[in-house]
């Protein structure tokens, strides 16, 4: 019995396969139809469970969709800032370079791109999903990028007047924008693009 | 009688007020409910016209929504590349700086932000709207940015190895990303943000 079960006053232990089935159904429906086009009832039906089984786990649609989005990007690596804190620019940027192929493969998957479009598409009408995506997915990666760019400034690779936060927005923004533009990239093309943008931002050295 | 009427084999002259009413209704419904949540029937009803009146003007929903999105961003200035072709980096970047306050005001409007979210949100499920937005709205602005950055490289303001296309993606991407993040900016904050990002990209000098 998990803490979440106790806090909701339920006694039965949770079956992780049920959680997975619900998250998968929520992710599929959100990706296909967006936040507004998806209901808890449809999610429960596709997962083969009752609505109460869903509500026992997630308080509302926002929380469930945020968790489903969260579950979709487990593959993208991100070393924690603690692991990187004492490293040089060359060492941190090497860690970033090493992580790029797996990131490119995940980001270039049609399903990921479709999900990303729905996250951005629902950002104004249903800001909860974007807020969760921001907090859980983007912020930790911003910390890594911030560390790399701070070292680059300290070591004189980038000029002292560099606006680090703006540069991070520019690198992340370019990748999102490239993924949602007409003519989406294949994984190898996206890997090349990530290298180009990260190098232009100064997060990694030019090849 | 316009060329479009003739090509569709209709004899009656078009009333521009009807066009406006249809475009306004299409923009409102698309902004509120997205591409999938909007039908030609709903648009016609909100505009107070019959479905045939809509189909006489636009062949399908994609074309109509693209035209509606087009009509929403008339305020954002963009000098043509011809006007700028013979200017120096200082002159071109001054033109860009002068255009920023109007751009910031338009982009920061809640309605514009909501529309932008739907354009990006429908980019995978209904790529026609994004393709039109790309062609009509973004490409002409990329030409201006390209000219400014080319001059910056020629005049030694930016290093010779600058990747101009990547830098443009980064500047545009950062602005889109800033608009659709949680905690959207007011017009004056967005103006400051545009200045920071454009300066970091080298499109305008640092203040």
From TrEMBL, chains A, B:
Keyword Signal among UniProt keywords: no
Pfam families, alphabetized: TetR_C_11, TetR_N
Entry's transmembrane regions: none
Protein keywords: DNA-binding, Transcription, Transcription regulation
Superkingdom classification of source: Bacteria
Domain HTH tetR-type: 16-76
Keyword Transcription regulation attached: yes
DNA-binding residue intervals: 39-58
PROSITE patterns hit by this protein: HTH_TETR_2
Protein name (Swiss-Prot/TrEMBL): TetR/AcrR family transcriptional regulator
Organism annotation: Promicromonospora vindobonensis
């Amino acid at each position: 019995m998990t803490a979440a079960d106790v806090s909701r006053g339920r006694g039965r232990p949770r079956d992780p396969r049920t959680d997975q089935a619900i998250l998968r159904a929520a992710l599929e429906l959100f990706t296909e139809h967006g936040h507004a086009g998806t209901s808890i009832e449809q999610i429960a039906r596709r997962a083969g469970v009752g609505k109460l089984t869903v509500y026992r786990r997630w308080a509302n649609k926002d929380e469930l969709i945020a968790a489903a989005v969260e579950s979709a990007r487990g593959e993208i690596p991100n070393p924690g800032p603690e692991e990187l804190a004492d490293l040089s620019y060359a060492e941190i940027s090497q860690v970033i370079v090493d992580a790029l192929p797996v990131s490119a493969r995940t980001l270039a998957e049609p399903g990921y791109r479709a999900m990303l479009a729905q996250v951005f598409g629902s950002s104004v009408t249903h800001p909860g999903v974007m807020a969760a995506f921001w907090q859980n997915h983007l912020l930790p990666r911003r910390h890594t990028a911030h560390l790399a760019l701070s070292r680059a400034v300290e070591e004189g690779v980038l000029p002292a007047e560099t606006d680090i936060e703006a540069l991070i927005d520019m690198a992340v923004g370019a990748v999102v924008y490239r993924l949602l533009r007409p003519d989406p990239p294949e994984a190898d093309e996206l890997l090349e693009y990530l290298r180009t943008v990260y190098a232009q931002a100064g997060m990694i050295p030019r090849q």
